Amino acid sequence: MITRTSTRLGLIAAAALLVLTGCSSTEAPGAGASASPSEDAATVHRVPAGVTLTDAWVKATTEGMSAVFGDIVNTGSEDVTLSAAGVSESRMVELHETVDNGSGQMVMRQKDGGFVIPAGGTFELRPGGNHIMLMDLTGPLVAGNTVTLTLAFMDGSVIEQAVPIKDFAGANETYESEAPTPGSGH
């Protein structure tokens, strides 16, 4: 668990560094695709070309865990992989998928390898489906407020975006680490 947390914190720190490095550049946001190979890689890939986060929101909660939902849209000509995410209000963030636990029950678990957003496609983050899990919250997430979400991609590019917090009564999923059901083998 410490290794996972350390790795994620390292990825988020790297993403933040890329954002800060990108802010010192004189290029327009999203520019850089035509940069020469001798330029710093952080300025070349600060924002993934053609990738946007739309209709994003975070579930309001007073403590414990929450999640980020929305659509990651890729209008580009190549697949991109979301490898990590972070918000300052959460000490631990994981990419989660929904899978059958072997006994017919759908459970949530960490998605190794990240989420692939297909070229010309959309990757949905939904309650009861794939989502970005926020754990070990530093305080309540109050409906009407926002959090700043950082998405880090495998190619080193990042998106940083303010995301609204909303009330939502659902998304009370079962997680793979919870007590196994009889005959599940987990």
TrEMBL record:
Keyword annotations of the record: Signal
Signal peptide: 1-28
Gene3D superfamilies given in the database record: PCu(A)C copper chaperone
Domain of life of the native organism: Bacteria
Protein name: Copper chaperone PCu(A)C
UniProt organism field: Mycetocola tolaasinivorans
